[in-house]
UniProtKB/TrEMBL annotation:
Domain F-box per the UniProt entry, residue ranges: 86-132
Entry keyword Transmembrane: no
Keywords in alphabetical order: Signal
Name of this protein: F-box domain-containing protein
Entry-linked Gene3D superfamilies: 1.20.1280.50
Organism (species): Kingdonia uniflora
Source organism, top-level taxon: Eukaryota
Length: 396
């Protein structure tokens, strides 16, 4: 097609230079058309390329259609209509434009960054993306996820810094080795740059949405609700899968067992880590003096010393010496606290555990496992979540 255009233009120039005799009257119209053609050539090419992308049709057929429209309506008139086809969105008042951008969904807001440089600066601002982060990811992102993201940013900035050093070295070596060879090496080691800052809220949202960013979270009833993990919550690194609207969970290794990956984890089985305690560390309890019968708690438990802790749901019960009468109960002043796990059958070794209120440390053995720190549940949302996960059958 380009060859066809060049041939036509060359023919017009050649005929213009060889015209020595007086030309007929109709040639003045042709010359005027050629001058208009030169003025409108860039607009015609842009419109042609846009139409090729939209229709995917043949190049020759589209050019014939556009030529027919030009002869029928006139080039100047068509371009004039395109240039004055309504008011631009940038002509809106500042407040009106801001209200429109605030109501855009994340995908539309991201697409708006490719319209022009002015909208790019507006649409990638943290103010607009912070609301989307809170609405979709706020429940799962805690302090641990923020620290993980900050570490991710630091490593990415270090990579970009090394990349710029590589390019500076390539310039200094250009006098020794061929430039084409050096350019190929640098391009192989570098990645295309994005047009938004790596530490922006938009970058964090897109990294979460694409599944490239693994962040710390806790999973209820791990490994698809295995009976050995019912009414527990374990630490994991999770990654989002936008095709299925679920997550992948990557549990830390323990003992001889390697990393376990669970797929298809639903949103309602995830929560942000409630404490800053690492999976293998003992939580220092600060609620022991406040525990009394009827309180809902979570307690650390692990099979042996090599395993990470998981958080298990239970309740504070009455001591054996107490008849359970609330008017005569003195369990809250005793140094001993009875913990009950009513999801297990009466008589099960997992049904009940006793801890010391004054000097509580990790307690247990290799047979029954080890009990660690305790946190008291004060929010109804947490208690309701555990009740919703209650097993349909009593565990042995």
């Amino acid at each position: 097609m380009l060859f066809f255009l060049i041939s036509c233009l060359s023919f017009i120039l050649l005929s213009k230079s060889l015209s020595l005799k007086p030309l007929p009257k109709w040639t003045s119209e042709t010359r005027l058309l050629s001058f208009g053609f030169w003025d409108d050539l860039p607009w015609l090419l842009v419109a042609l390329l846009r139409k090729v992308r939209q229709t995917g049709g043949s190049f020759f057929r589209i050019f014939v259609d556009m030529s027919f429209k030009k002869r029928r309506f006139g080039t100047k008139k068509v371009i004039h209509m395109e240039e004055n086809d309504g008011m631009s969105v940038l002509d809106l008042p500042e407040l009106a434009l801001e209200c429109i951008l605030e109501r855009l969904p994340p995908l539309a807001l991201y697409n708006m960054t490719g319209v022009c440089s002015s909208l790019r600066e507006r649409c990638r601002s943290d103010y607009l993306w912070e609301r989307h982060m809170k609405e979709k990811w706020g429940r799962l992102l805690g302090i641990a996820a923020l620290r993980e993201w900050q570490g991710h940013i630091a490593s990415k900035n270090e990579f970009l810094g090394n990349q710029s050093k590589r390019k500076g070295l390539a310039k200094s070596l250009s006098c020794v080795w061929p430039i084409s060879w050096i350019r190929s090496k640098v391009q192989n080691c570098s990645k295309p740059r994005s047009y938004f800052p790596v530490d922006s809220m938009m970058a964090w949202y897109l990294s979460l949405e694409s599944g490239k960013f693994w962040f710390p979270a806790q999973v209820y009833n791990r490994e698809h609700g295995h009976v050995g993990f019912m009414l527990s919550c374990y630490d994991a690194e999770v990654s989002y899968d936008n095709r299925t609207d679920t997550f992948q969970a990557r549990y830390p290794p323990h003992g001889r067992r390697t990393i376990v990956i669970e797929e298809g984890v639903q949103w309602d089985r995830l929560r942000a880590p409630t404490l800053a305690t690492l999976p293998h560390d003992l939580h220092v309890s600060d609620c022991l003096n406040d525990l009394r019968p009827g309180d809902h708690i979570e307690i650390q438990w692990r099979r042996n010393k090599e395993f990470p802790y998981g958080w298990w749901y239970g309740m504070v019960g009455h001591l054996e010496s107490c008849d359970g009468n609330e008017y005569h109960c003195c369990c809250h002043v005793s140094d001993t606290v009875s913990l009950e796990f009513n999801q297990y059958t009466p008589g099960s070794r997992w049904r009940r555990s006793i801890i010391n209120r004054k000097d509580h440390r990790e307690e247990g053995n290799e047979t029954d496992g080890f009990y660690g720190g305790i946190r008291k549940l004060c929010r109804n949302e947490e208690i309701t979540m555990w009740k919703r996960l209650w097993p349909t059958e009593v565990l042995e």
